Queue: 3 jobs
Job 1
Amino acid sequence: MIVSQDSIERRELFKRIRQDIKEKQYAAIPFPLTKEELDKAAEYFLDFLRLPIDLKEQFYFIIDPKDRGSKVGYVRKRKKLGKRKKYADDDKELFHYHECAEDAFKELLASGTPHVTTFFASARTVYRAAKTTIKTIIQAFETEFPGVYKKFFSDKGYPRFYLRFLKYNIPKKDKTLASGHYDLGGCTLTIAESGPGLRMGTDDSDLNPVAYKEGYVLFTTGFNFQKVTSSEFHPAWHDVIKIGKPYSKDVARWSIVFFADPVGMEIPKFEQTNTPKKFQG
């Protein structure tokens, strides 16, 4: 039996990813865009956020009302504390880009608003690079788990791929910018960040700072990934803490992240993804 070079490379990539995730919960994967290109994309996103709120809020669309993970566009998130409607210092603005956004916001894009046009052009570029990268990763997993590729790259329904641009607002006092959690979907590429602060571990007891390498992105597994692979690929627990000076006077930090979800998987409940647990495997 002749084994192709592509097959050998995919198997080797799978072995490296499995070992890295076992040791530190993430694997560094080569990425085709430069740091300068990603920094520019983040700046275009921050320019978009400076637009009037009534315009930003028009960029909101739900692909499937039955799928709470299919929200596309602009969102401001504030974490509530208890029943008194107070908020934690977990305040952020984000934009989810999906390929359907081009049609969903066609009229808004046709207006030619400069900050909208430049942001969408850069988001499109990053999204395509991320989709190509996640395709390479899932093809590597296909060598060990036949059929997993079609669970992500299905010919049925819409692609469950979302590119998130995220701005953390300046916290009042808490050093936590994002509280600990598991990503609710399949897997994640952490593509770029304005500075350190991301920590990963198996739970709250062993969180460690993430080491970045230019030219690479970080691959991590979400809550549902072990359901389409095996129990050894349990989700990575992670949070974000404040380190050093804010990015600017009104931005504590920014990040760019890509989420890839398998088709047809039930989305876990909030309590499941926001409570650390000991996974078997």
Job 2
Amino acid sequence: MDLRRLARYSSRIESIMHGTLDWEMNQGIDALAENEDWELLAVMALTAAEVPARRMAERLLENEKYLYLVLPGCFRRQVRRPEIIDSAGFRRGAFRDLDATDMDDEAGIPDHIRETADELAEASDRTRMIALQRGLEQDNDGIRDFIVEALAQELMASADAVNALVLIACCSIWEETRRMAALKIANHKPTVRRLAEAGRANELVQISQASGMESVAATVASALTELIPNLKQENNTRVLKFIAENHPDAEARNSAREGLPPENAEQ
């Protein structure tokens, strides 16, 4: 990316990214769109606050710049306020009703009470850290969902929208986003058929795996039936094994199994 493009918005970056004043944010995002700085919009959408990030995604959608939505669709995180763990505060609270002669060094507090308070503080810290970790693993950013839903609406109209959704289904670092994108594709039979006809078997297998559903695996395996001869010729063990395990038709399963090495053909 040409960083000179970023420099031209230096006086607007804060208002664009944080959306403090609605009119300033909109003016900045409109300027980015008018100047066709699509890549910069996509990069900024990764870490912008939720409202401006949604406006950025909307501008990309309005201008049919679907592939630029892949970055935020794959890597955007939920913007959170920092949480500070203050074990000292907890510990001070535990002692507030005790008649200590010097609260700074906790003189006069019996050792067994101090040890109990320390244990409680440590347990509290561990509990909060576990909760924070779970929160990070279950990132609930709404912009990624918005992007996936919007791209799914364009599957019939745009090859770029199809490619963008496939990339998100295969590459997003978030399991739920991958699954959501994969299901949007798998439930759209014309798209599955077009991907199969284009020979994109490996991507279809990844989409099936991202969905985590046996029904999707059967749908994808069925769509790949006509590709079995080519897959045998290419020695594509991965896809042939997938078909052999998931195709609803026994004849097709056996045909795929014929192209597997002996150690993979055994059931």
Job 3
Amino acid sequence: MEPLFLLTIPRYDIPEFGSLDEDYLCSEEQLSWYISDENMQAKPVHLLGQTSVHEENLEYEYTDLEDESWNFWLEKVDADCVYIFDQEVYRRCVKVRASNILIQYERPEEASAPSLELSYAYRRLGRVSGHSGILGIGNLSAMEYANDRSSLHNEVYSNLYFLEREFETKQEMDADIEHPMAVELRRFFEDILEQK
């Protein structure tokens, strides 16, 4: 596997007195997307292991910084996982590829019973702003809406590894390499929905 570098990206929507910088792993080539900024630092990392995770038919609820909730359905999630030791902690970093994403929400109660409506996720993705290199969007169908899961054709993928999980001991990390836990998608949806 090619060498990876630890890249700290400041969140520029946070006041200067805030401290919500976020760490990613990237390839040497990807450093050029960010390294021209004096505030961004990168150092090479030593990989302790790698594995992958595959999941299907996931539902995930995300609450954004404005306390608005988004309920997602994902047909398929594949994640490449790498393990590092950083700041005295064992960490798992993941690069996610999610296929066929829907936003689910309940219509207001106009009738006696609410109904579930499905909205094409890319309508929301039009509001993404910030560092364009964090995510990629591919295999996008021409449809603006999809009321049927069988009609979906979309894909969102991470260009960078994000720090997703920490382990207290090397034994916990080794156990996860052997039998990896499901991916926590909080940072993935944060990269989609929040300003960076």
